[in-house]
Amino acid sequence: MRHIFTSLLLATALTAPILADDVIAWRLFVADHAEGKVTAVDAISGDTLGAFALKSPASLVAGESGEAVFAVQGAAGQVSAIRSGIAIDDHGDHGDIEVSEPALVEAVISGEKPAHFVEHDGKVALFFDGSGKVDLFSPHEWADDGKITESQLDSGTPHHGLAVPWGDFTLVSTANAEDEKKPRIGLNVVDASGKLVGETHACPDLHGEAASGNLLIVGCGDGVLIVSGSGEPQVTKLDYSGLPEGKTTTLIGGQGMQYFLGNYGADKVVIIDPAEAAPYRLVDLPTRRVHFVTDSVRPKFAYIFTEDGFLRQLDVVSGELTQSVKVTEPYSMDGEFSLPRPRIAVVGDKVAVTDPLKSVVHLVDVADFALAGEIAVEGAPYNIVAVGGSGIQH
């Protein structure tokens, strides 16, 4: 998930004073577990700003610019865009902020089982599991103008895959079309016309990707693929050397520091730094992991919610769990994967934790790691993203 943070440096005018206000605005967008609905909440006041009807329950992705949140409705075969109502224009020494009402964009993208939605360098690749097709488009054009200009690639066969834009190229998963289970076998690099560049990069059980700094990694059953390069992407394999048997399938990239955080077994996470001689550091958790995120404003920290109801702070520099607080009643990881369980998001100086069985979002203050209130959200609040920052309003 990506947030906007702009430093505020007010220049002194030599002629006449500039009339401006410092404004901080943060919004939470919360998808319901049972219904096709996303609720927008002012994270500072706790006020509900709107509820947007969708075709089915959604996973949420915050756009890199923060101007929109995208709701992927796999069961309904469509993706919707919601304008966040927060726009920050970076002027170098300060940022101008405009705040308006959030709004659902009328135009939608439709296809067979949309799943992975990946934005990189201002372009989105949307993978459709049901067809194996990939749509490429500008998220800014969609959110700002309500228009969608797409180009499409074909991965070759339907499968649970992913694609990532990379300049003039696209990274696309490939699967065994001859096997009815369609196992993922590798990663292809294709050019703008969809033509394969080089050979397929072997990546059995491919699942999960993340970007940090100028690197991207993709999870495999036997290691991770490291993608780099400013032109044609260069792809290398980093084996799981020094780790017990297992694999990472969910990855998040660090912001402000180049590292990656991934799952590794039910009760562990792994910190990955490809530049280090020992690139993997395994972190044991007291119990099974439910969800985890990285912190873009305090880059050395990440947060992990575990099934005992605790939110835990991870120092990714030391590799140690440093603070914890009990937030909810236990949410066991036994049972179906799709059961409603908490999700977390960093919202300014707090961490928001959804509690779907209690119809609330809890807030934890990052500084003292203590409960800092809760926000009521109707239904079963589940997936959550935060959008916001600070700036000058003239």
TrEMBL record:
Keywords: Signal. It comes from the Bacteria. Transmembrane segments: none annotated. Residues 1-20 form the signal peptide. The keyword Transmembrane does not apply. InterPro entries: AztD-like (IPR047697), Quinoprotein_ADH-like_sf (IPR011047), WD40/YVTN_repeat-like_dom_sf (IPR015943). NCBIfam families: AztD. This is Uncharacterized protein. It comes from Devosia riboflavina.
